[in-house]
User: Which sequence fits this backbone?
């Protein structure tokens, strides 16, 4: 049923986002929620996006699917989605409505944080899963039901036949998230966007869900964009990481480069502010002073400068640092590394 | 029971606490079953210490905290609060006698967005408990609120602002200031940092520890985040489906868990280290329906070590030779792995 992906060029990004800008025009002024974001999603790999709330990680992925509502607007940038079977790429920003429909839920699917609110309460789970299949795969009703059942088995649901006839509120949190994953993956997408998929779940259910995602990725070869503020979840799943702060990616690299040798003071502070195995009993963790500034009161220069311990006066508060390459694949925007 | 002696070293002693909710059906509200939200739980909170309470959602953590504060009435059991004047059984004390004791126990809530009244400014929020407890003089209240706000790391001039002007971390600080207003000796922290960003979590945890050192507070720290519980607690209680399954120091619990459920819980915690061994002991299934719990040990359907005995008899919470407390038939034969 699921066609194995073949002959993929692993080094060419499936999705290449360049200089993405999404601004919100509110009554109080312009909020630059995403301000020049670049990211690459490689086939079969997981890209993690981390950052505190309000850093623009969710808006970035919503922009990828062009799910930005008024007063938000995608101002500029390119988002090239590469089609391996036809060896051509298309810019998502230039697609018309019909083409966009094929990308949404077809080539790129999304799972959300709160599966309760993202399911329709008045349609059965089966109804909602088959709807996606009928829309994207041109299957007949019976074929669609069969495939939906098959996917429920694949995501580890017990009694799939019965589950199809149930409503979202009849399922537990973990089951709902499984159903959501089944719904997102039944069209066999190339990219799965997971927006805080485990934040509302217990640790045990979280471990089950992460395991399931990893297993499905191995089987299908899909790419995952994982958004979370939980650095542990990122370390579990991601191959590459982008760290965001106030609408900008300030550090990116492989999980090892970023987590083992963080270069940006923000990444460093974030990593040291969570308790680890080495944290002693009642030990005070180093804290990141202050909070994320109000989006309309964005500091000049590097947006992190008021909270930064390595702040250089006259430099950091004047200009946003250029991107510097630490080593192959490890990029950082910080004046400390300016050449 | 209330022995008049020098202050008991335990601020709270919980003995065989039970909280059952009847399940009714039909218009006659016939009782068809019972949910044992808390089933025969006993533990103590030593003065000046932090006791962690962990478990999956629905295991009864919050029910216990609410029983201690008598926000709900326990079905059975005793909850002793010990202070200089003596020992009081909170479970049975009538409301008029309970009232003066309430100021000794305060709570910090999970969601700083819904636990602060949006129509009250900071002064009103933090000073309300003072007013209710007889501090009629406004200047006096103002001084106290000022002192409290500074204590939790906020500025005194914020007093006239409303909660919407503050971030999640700042709101949690306001909640802490309100809890501290009456100089309590016990604070029940119900998931105090789970709604906060990681960088802010550390700020709040550090603040809680500083305040504990300064005022000699005792905490009951309810959380599902094991790494934070491990950092802050002096002792950890692990709960499953209304029952206590293991108790020990963080060191004991994390390096050599004795109950298979504790082992699974620890192994499920993701480590922010890409080199950490990703060898999770995935628990099959989910927490069973509490109105229809399994026979024998409640954990046996999800336990990979379960034997025939586990399906039949419920293991009692016992203390072994080395002083560890747990409820498992097979603990002796198992060599469970912790984190280290």
Assistant:
């Amino acid at each position: 049923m699921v066609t194995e992906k073949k002959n993929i060029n692993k080094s060419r990004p499936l999705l290449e986002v360049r200089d993405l800008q999404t601004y919100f025009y509110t009554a109080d002024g312009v909020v630059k929620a995403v301000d020049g974001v670049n990211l690459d999603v490689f086939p079969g790999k997981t890209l993690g996006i981390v950052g505190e709330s309000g850093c623009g990680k969710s808006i970035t992925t919503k922009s990828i699917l062009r799910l930005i509502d008024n007063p938000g607007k995608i101002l500029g940038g390119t988002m090239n989605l590469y089609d391996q079977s036809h060896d051509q790429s298309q810019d998502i920003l230039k697609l018309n409505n019909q083409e966009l429909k094929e990308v949404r839920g077809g080539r790129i699917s999304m799972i959300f944080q709160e599966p309760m609110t993202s399911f329709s309460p008045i349609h059965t789970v089966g109804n909602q899963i088959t709807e996606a299949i009928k829309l994207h795969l041109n299957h007949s009703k019976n074929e669609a039901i069969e495939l939906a059942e098959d996917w429920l088995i694949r995501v580890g649901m017990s009694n799939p036949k019965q589950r199809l006839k149930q409503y979202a509120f009849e399922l537990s949190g973990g089951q709902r998230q499984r159903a959501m994953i089944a719904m997102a993956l039944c069209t066999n997408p190339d990219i799965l966007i997971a927006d805080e998929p485990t934040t509302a779940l217990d640790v045990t259910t979280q471990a089950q869900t992460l395991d399931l995602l990893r297993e499905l990725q191995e089987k299908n070869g899909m790419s995952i964009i994982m958004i979370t503020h939980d650095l542990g979840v990122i370390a579990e799943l991601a191959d590459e990481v982008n760290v965001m702060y106030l609408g900008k990616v300030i550090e990116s690299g492989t999980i090892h480069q970023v987590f083992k040798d963080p270069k940006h003071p923000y990444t460093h502070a974030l990593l040291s502010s969570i308790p680890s195995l080495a944290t002693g009993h009642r030990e005070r963790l180093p804290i990141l002073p202050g909070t994320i500034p109000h989006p309309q009161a964005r500091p000049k220069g590097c947006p992190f400068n008021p909270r930064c311990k390595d702040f250089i006066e006259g430099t950091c508060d004047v200009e946003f640092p250029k991107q510097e390459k630490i080593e192959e694949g490890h990029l950082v925007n910080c004046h400390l590394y300016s050449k | 029971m209330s022995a008049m002696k020098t202050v008991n070293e335990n601020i709270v002693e919980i003995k065989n606490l039970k909280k059952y909710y009847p399940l009714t059906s039909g218009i006659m509200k016939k009782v068809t079953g019972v949910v044992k939200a808390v089933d025969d739980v006993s533990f103590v909170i030593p003065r000046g210490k932090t006791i962690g309470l962990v478990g999956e959602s629905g295991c009864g953590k919050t029910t216990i905290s609410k029983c201690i504060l008598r926000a709900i009435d326990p079905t059975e059991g005793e909850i002793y609060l010990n202070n200089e004047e003596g020992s009081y059984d909170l479970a049975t004390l009538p409301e008029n006698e309970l009232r003066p004791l309430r100021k000794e126990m305060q709570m910090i809530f999970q969601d700083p967005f819904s636990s602060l009244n949006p129509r009250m400014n900071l002064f009103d929020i933090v000073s309300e408990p003072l007013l209710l407890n007889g501090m009629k003089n406004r200047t006096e209240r103002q001084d106290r609120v000022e002192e409290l706000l500074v204590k939790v790391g906020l500025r005194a001039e914020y007093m006239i602002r409303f909660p919407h002007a503050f971030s999640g971390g700042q709101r949690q600080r306001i909640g802490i200031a309100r809890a501290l207003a009456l100089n309590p000796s016990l604070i029940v922290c119900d998931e105090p940092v789970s709604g906060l960003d990681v960088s802010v979590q550390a700020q709040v945890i550090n603040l809680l520890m500083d305040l504990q050192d300064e005022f000699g507070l005792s905490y009951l720290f309810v959380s599902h985040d094991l790494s934070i519980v491990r950092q802050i607690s002096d002792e950890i209680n692990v709960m499953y489906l209304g029952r206590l399954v293991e108790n020990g120091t963080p060191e004991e619990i994390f390096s050599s868990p004795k109950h298979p459920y504790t082992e699974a819980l620890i192994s499920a915690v993701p480590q922010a280290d890409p080199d950490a061994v990703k060898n999770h002991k995935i628990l099959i299934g989910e927490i069973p329906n509490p109105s229809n719990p399994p026979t024998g040990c409640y954990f046996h359907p999800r336990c990979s070590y379960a034997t025939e005995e586990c399906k039949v008899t419920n293991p009692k919470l016992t203390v072994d030779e080395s002083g560890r407390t747990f409820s498992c038939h097979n603990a002796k034969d198992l060599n469970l792995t912790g984190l280290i």
Observations:
- Confidence is low (pLDDT under 50) at residues 1-6 of chain A.
- The domain at 9-100+226-339 of chain A is CATH 3.40.50.300 (Rossmann fold).
- Chain A is about 30% helix and 25% strand.
- Chain A touches chain B through 46 residues (CB under 8 Å).
